[in-house]
Design brief:
Helices cover 42% and strands 14% of the residues. It is α/β, with parallel strands linked by helices and 471 residues long. The protein has three domains: 3-70, Up-down Bundle (dopa decarboxylase, N-terminal domain), CATH 1.20.1340; 101-346, Aspartate Aminotransferase, domain 2 (3-Layer(aba) Sandwich); 361-470, Aspartate Aminotransferase, domain 1, CATH 3.90.1150. The structure holds pyridoxal-5'-phosphate (PLP). Pyridoxal-5'-phosphate binds next to helix 5.
């Protein structure tokens, strides 16, 4: 592609993106396609001859777009948000154009030094004390895996990478059953094994880990010859927003020499607002904390902020230093690839820098406070509406509810969520609470307005009523 054509299509892509964003309210949130419908329109064999950009772009609009679920839609209330604020998209255009590999300081000093700086901005923004060092990981899953690997190496006196797990005693990791599935996978991939992930029961409205049970489990495991290595806690669990009492967990864990990781992938963004920090009280004593600016905060995926107390432990666990990767002549510089499992890394700090400067903390706090207020208001309206119950109260902007229709309530609520998503005006997902289906609602999309929350109320009550009529 020559320079002129590249410029022309880059401009077209940016203009298309802006028009697309402006059109979102008129599109169904969830893709309305059947499995295989998109693949059937794409040739089974690769093209022998190059094609025109006009043809490729036309097929993008004709074939691909109808198969997209619109995550930037203001009425996306499913899962958790994956906000890409326009300013972060602009930063990503620049990153994409430069396409640098930022694995070492010398492979792009600006990327490394900006990452150090903006992660420290974020650390201050969410109220973590000095002494936490930050690194951007590609996902919270990777951050949690890194933390589990550090737990493993610390507990095995740094002998796990070398001798393998077969040559070492069995490790134990503790968490509640409210943590994200990425924790299970970290336990599998680290070789520790699911049987050694000890689930601690939860209690209370916040569904937090029972710390007396945690301590009893650690003591029982020690007596049985296991080596307890760490505890994984959550602030804002995926299903209903469960929050462990971080301070109490850390107290027990540290008394036994265990490493504590806090998964606040979604809820961490809200900690830029001082009034929400009680949800993770005690976090300052944790060893490792992850939150995803690529969820609620508005930095385009991928951008996970991982803060650690002792980065040397992380580097000792993950750094490989072959001769050709050494940065000669400069001591004390950071090579962030030594802090993460993958070697190659995109320049992810630029979008955070653009985002934080353009909106300021004040702008981002305002957005989060609005979302929390609108979710609380919607929960209250549903609670007072005939035939609905709020199953779990709002934690920040997440709550779950159920329609008390006729017949089997699980089947009825699954049918309701499907009918709502087929309608397309809003998008919701379901979860299980104490074994029974509940419908999740979270407010979090960057461009959402209070009107969109009102639309959610109308759609939910209207479709529930029409299902009742059919039944
Ligand atoms: C979204 C989420 C994750 C997974 O995040 P990725 O960045 O997609 O790996 C983990 N834990 C919690 C609590 C989450 O909300």
């Amino acid at each position: 592609m020559d320079d002129t054509t590249f410029a022309e299509w880059s401009k077209k892509a940016a203009e298309w993106g802006a028009a697309y964003r402006a059109s979102l309210r008129d599109r169904p949130v969830r893709a309305q396609t059947a499995p295989g419908g998109i693949a059937a329109q794409i040739p089974a064999a690769p093209p022998e001859k190059g094609e025109s950009m006009e043809a490729i772009f036309a097929d993008f609009e004709r074939i691909i777009l109808p198969g997209m679920t619109h995550w930037q839609h203001p009425r996306f209330f499913a899962y958790f948000p994956a906000n890409a604020a326009p300013v972060s998209v602009v930063a990503e255009y620049l990153v994409t154009a430069m396409a640098a590999q930022c694995m070492l300081w010398q492979t792009s000093p600006a990327a490394t030094e900006l990452e150090t700086r903006v992660l420290d901005w974020l650390r201050q923004a969410i109220g973590l004390p000095e002494g936490f060092a930050g690194v951007i990981q590609d996902s919270a899953s990777s951050a949690t895996l890194s933390a589990v690997l550090v737990m493993r190496e610390r507990a095995l006196a740094w002998n796990g990478n070398k001798a393998g797990l077969g040559a070492n005693p069995r490790l134990r990791i503790y968490s509640s059953d409210q943590v994200h599935t990425s924790i299970d996978r970290a336990i599998w991939v680290s070789g520790i094994g699911e049987d050694n992930l000890v689930r601690i029961p939860v209690g209370g409205e916040k569904r937090s880990m029972d710390c007396a049970a945690l301590e009893a489990a650690i003591l029982r495991d020690k007596a049985a010859g296991y080596v307890p290595a760490g505890v994984i806690t959550c602030t804002g669990g995926t299903s209903t927003g469960a929050c462990d009492d971080i301070g109490a967990v850390v107290k027990v864990a540290h008394a036994h020499g265990l490493y504590v990781h806090v998964d606040a992938a979604w809820a961490g963004a809200a900690m830029i607002c001082e009034e929400f920090r009680s949800l993770w009280a005690g976090v300052e004593a944790a060893d490792s904390v992850v939150f995803n600016p690529h969820k609620w905060l508005g930095a385009q995926f991928d951008c996970s902020a991982h803060f650690i107390r002792a980065p040397d432990d992380l580097v000792r666990t993950l750094a490989i230093k072959p001769e050709y990767l050494k940065t000669h002549g400069r001591d004390g510089i950071i090579n962030y690839s030594e802090w993460t499992v993958p070697l190659g890394r995109r320049f992810r700090a630029l979008k955070l820098w653009f985002l934080l400067r353009f909106h300021g903390l004040e702008g981002l706090k305002g957005m989060i406070r609005d979302h929390v207020a609108w979710a609380e208001k919607l929960a209250e309206r549903l609670r007072r509406h005939d035939g609905f119950e709020v199953v779990t109260n709002p934690v920040l902007s997440l709550f779950s509810f159920r329609h008390l229709g006729s017949g089997d309530l699980d089947a009825h609520n699954l049918a309701l969520v499907n009918a709502i998503n087929d309608d397309g005006r809003i998008y919701l997902t379901q979860t299980r609470v104490d074994g029974r289906i509940a419908i999740r609602f979270q407010a979090g999309q960057f461009d959402m307005t209070e009107n969109d929350a009102d639309t959610a109320f109308e759609v939910i009550t209207e479709i529930a009523k029409s299902l009742d009529r059919i039944a």
